[in-house]
Amino acid sequence: MDPRTSLPGSPEELERFAYLQTRLPDIWNATRRAASAAHTSVVVPSLSFDSDELAKVKGVNWYEERLLFTLIRLRDPAARVLYVTSQPIHPEIIDYYLQLLAGVPASHARRRLGLLCMHDTSSEPLTQRILRRPRVIRRMRDWIGDPERAYLTCFHSTPLERSLAVALGIPLNAADPAMLHWGSKSGSRQIFTTAGVLHPAGYEELRSLDDVIDALVDLSQQRPGLMRAVIKLNDSFSGEGNALYAFPPDLPDDDAARRESITAALSDIRWTAHDETAGRFFGKFADMGGIVEEYIEADELHSPSVQMRITPVGEVTIVSTHDQVLGGATSQVYLGCRFPARESYRQQIQDEALKIGKALADVGVVSRFGIDFVVSRRADGPWRCHAIEINLRMGGTTHPFLALQFLTGGTLDPSTGQFLTRRGEPRCYFATDTLTAPSYRGLLPEDLMDILVANGLQFRPSDETGTLFHMIGALSQFGKVGVTCVGTTRAEADELYSEAVATLDRETGASQGLGGRPTRLLDARIQIE
Prior knowledge:
This protein is α+β, with helices and mostly antiparallel strands. Helix content is 34%, strand content 24%. The protein has helices at 11-21, 24-33, 51-54, 91-98, 106-111, 126-131, 134-144, 159-168, 185-195, 209-222, 255-264, 278-288, 343-362, 398-408, 445-455, 475-478, 490-508, 521-524; strands spanning 39-44, 79-85, 113-117, 150-154, 202-206, 228-233, 242-246, 270-271, 290-294, 300-302, 304-310, 316-327, 333-339, 367-377, 384-391, 411-413, 418-420, 426-436, 459-460, 465-470, 480-487. Helix 9 crosses helix 13 and helix 10 crosses helix 11 (255-264). The N and C termini lie far apart (61 Å). The model is unreliable at 512-520 and 522-529 (pLDDT under 50).
């Protein structure tokens, strides 16, 4: 049997996959030694998650465009990129990214770029659609040519991506799908315990409504006076699979009465997804499992994250820190981020993240991943740092940092957590995938480019600051676009974002009350510092 066409999950496929993964260290070392090292990145930005969970995200099909920042890899003259999508990418969007390649003619970069579209926006993951099309796989193999210096880049690594890597004959530059459990909500809590890192009191590996009730009862006894708990699906996306539970006041001491009171309060649960129902949520809970844990309460709370990487040669490294912007009905939906995280607790979360990274490395994980934390304090006391979950994949903080890194050629100083350009200058940013307004609907990519040029709303290579847009394809249908604003300070990045919003408002009539008010993260959901 041809190992490239072995049945998914078969011993032949697993053996072939393990062999292909042994190539990654050589590719990694070669590209680190010299920008002139030939290599090919096959980018398949498939959102290989539960389809019901993805349906909760507005304009989710256009999230495939978030990894277009990987085109900046073409800055290296020997790099090649094959980018595969469900629907066509507008030529003006491709031009927008290629013009960011300072010193590289767009024509030269285009010769090293392949674009392949499925012309299929069905709900199944993009990777699955590719696997159903043998001719597409053949086209991809032909474009790759020599597979010895090629690798597969994906947003999320699942058995589908493993099968695609084997079909293409190239390694997967992501976590082995056999490690997926450690990126679930239950697996995260188990790793935190192994690493000796503080995390909320709670229970994992739950499978039923009765399990949830038992966990809530136990939590109420373990944490007398606890006001709220969070119920989370094991494998959800962007916080949409969370629910907030409020404990009844004055719980009775009698066990049966306490259980009855806690069960009755489930009718008042607050769903993160606006159209969620108890039947659907707990049906999904039975399918994928989940956790129950305490909701951290304090005088001051923040939700930072640490982005990390375990390299193919086993190095555990800090990539970046962020303060996440959360919103939605339960304030648990990811909306955006600021880089870097606040200095007052930045080193603390880096130290805790390294413990978690080493624990993941010990179980064999090789991947980019993010770790979400909650930091809290009473009055002006010390920060307490609770690890919340591991996202064993790329996330909302991945693409803005990659853009900053590729555009400036700078690096993170691990001793300070600051990003420094090649000139030794600090850079910060504010990024979001969710700048939305009804008045933005109908804007074509050409229209946005006209607005950007007319108003000078661009990233400036001369001083390495400015504004970048992504998910541009979602504008016309959803009035939604992503923005990354790079400044020398966090305050300057906030100002650039405010200017970008004001410009789009003015150009689309929103500032005159036409078409509705946009979702402005800075004035609607977070306070400018």
